[in-house]
Amino acid sequence: LLILGIESSCDETGVALVRSADTGVPVLLSHALHSQIEMHQAYGGVVPELASRDHIRRVLPLATQVLTDAGQTLADVDVVAYTQGPGLAGALLVGAGVACALGAALGKPVLGVHHLEGHLLSPFLSADPPEFPFVALLVSGGHTQLMRVDGVGRYEILGETIDDAAGEAFDKSAKLMGLGYPGGPALSRMAQQGDATAFKLPRPLLHSGDLDFSFAGLKTAVLTQAKKLGDELEARKADLAASTEAAIVEVLVKKTLAALKQTGLQRVVVAGGVGANRLLREQLNTACSKARVRVHYPELHLCTDNGAMIAMAAAMRLQAGQQQANTAYAFDVKPRWPLDAITAPVA
Ligand code: ATP
Ligand code: MG
Ligand code: FE
Question: Which class of enzymes does this protein belong to (predicted)?
Answer without folding.
Answer: transferase
